[in-house]
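Human: Here is a favour to ask of a fellow structure person. Comparing notes only helps if you start from a blank page. Give me a protein, with the fold worked out from its sequence. Please set it down just below, with no commentary around it:

Assistant:
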Amino acid sequence: MAKAYFSSTIYDFLKASEEAVLGAILIKDEFRATVEQRYAWQREIEIMKNQLSLLGEDGFIVFEYTVPRIGSRIDVTCIIRGIIFVLEFKVNATKYLMDDEEQVVDYALDLKYFHEESELRHIVPILIATDADSYGTQITIFDDKIIDTIFANSNNIAEKINAVLRVIPENPEITANAWINSRYRPTPTIIEAAQALYQNHDVKEISRNDAGAENLENTNAAINYVIEDCKTNNKKAICFITGVPGAGKTLAGLNIANTRHKFEEDDHAVFLSGNGPLVEVLQEALARDDSKKNGISKSKAKTKTKAFIQIIHKFRDYAVESEDPPIEKVAIFDEAQRAWDMAQLSSFMSRRKGVADFNKSEPESLIEYMDRHEDWATIVCLVGGGQEINTGEGGIKDWFEALNEHFSDWDIYLSDKMTDSEYVGENTIDELLTREYKVIPELHLSVSMRSFRSEKQSAFVKALLDCNIEEASKLYKELNEKYPIVLTRKLDAAKDWVRMKSRGSERYGLMATSAAERLRTRGIWAANEIKPVKWFLEGKDDVNSSFYLEVTATEFAVQGLEIDYGIVAWDGDVRYENGGFVFKRFTRNMWCNVNKPERRSYMKNAYRVLLTRSRQGMVIYIPEGNMFDPTTAPELYDSTYNYLKEIGIIEI
């Protein structure tokens, strides 16, 4: 894909004929432009020639610069006196639409945070509705040097650019070649990453830094080595990939599934997850993107995506109904630590499927299904530490138990971090896995990629939940400038904060744990089930989207997914008292102690999930309490609030 369809100095652009510029664009166009697109380019060239002639000959111009992450293209970019003007044209448009404004702001944000040569420069998004009325010009410069959107028509672009040049000091010079060929270091959401991989982008194009890209590539190479060994030598193997929160475990799994998605080569792979919302959102997002880019119906696109990404329960249930092996030779299990233990799965199979005396854990059932292949098979388990959030999620020990007792001929490969307590608890690997295994260091993803503002976010959340005030305070000071975290006792203030921080299509939303039952006194209903596709994918005009801040997402809805700015509403279910957290459940009109260690762990992990969902910043909302209501009394909330204040979290 060409990085730009046309680029030149403004001087050479003004000297060239309109036909020559259009011809150069059409030569680079891979998609055989429609008549409408050709007309749009002709008008853009004509307008830019007219307007730039009024400005002088400094700088350079670029048509159709490609954003590598997702293949979208910026209509026109002008760099004058080192300032980057991002122009989005709406030819023949008579109005400035909100969706169009979001588009050009998204381009500006993309350049600011992911395009190396643009990072320290002023960036000016300009929305051009060619036939619209004139719109007033107000130059507002944000802290990151992005200017608030400027609105122009075909006759006043030069006037708008001049207004900016009078206010903003000249930026350092840059050449067209250096800017166009700049390193691009994106941090896509898991949705954007899945779309990019599905459209055959390389994993390097969607990694924010060299370390992250190298980490993912090394892990991918290690897995492919194991798969090829199994395929060549008729062996079966299981690999356990670990990683820090946000390091890209799901991305690694999707990449393996996508590259091995080959029916014709008897090498078909499938990405499986027990996370229903994640599967639902990814299937829908991939289908929408595939339909739009390849001109097929969404229903046909959805059928394709369902073969690529599946809910693990349906895959497992088919194993019970049939004695045949699956069509897939490679199965990637996301969040393997959340697989059901024997008691949970047996209860489900009896109640829902009418299968009596089912006596297998989910790991045993899944390995047995893949073991039906007579020649070879490979299982890849993606393991997150401290991620178990529901009853019956057995952690990693059930996988080891099944391998110990039933599958002695399977090779086992572990990352070198599998010994950490967050994966194996208080046991040692040799206590849990009583047979031979091999350690591959490349199976651990050590570089966080979720938050491009700070890689210290997950470490801060861990220190906070571990009640390590000194460490949490130190990390907060280090990350707060790049990754803002604030505290409030006013819900309206929290909502205003995320709305103010968000620009373009940056997504914000309201989250609380599923046990936060008394937040409903503040209008936060955590018990209601959300529609994940609408919450994560729909826009600001849909009342069920996250943008409305009406529908509350719990840990079950958001695990594995992410938003840009989040409100984490903190109830009395997990509260700070006497130097540590205590755990409560609300039942029979009162808060009761939670005594089971595993249940306490689930509740702590629920807050870990919520506090690590926001890519760019978050606000923690703790109610003030009501002295007339014992279930929301001030003392139930004040101690947690004071603990967070002691860490140093700034109040708004």
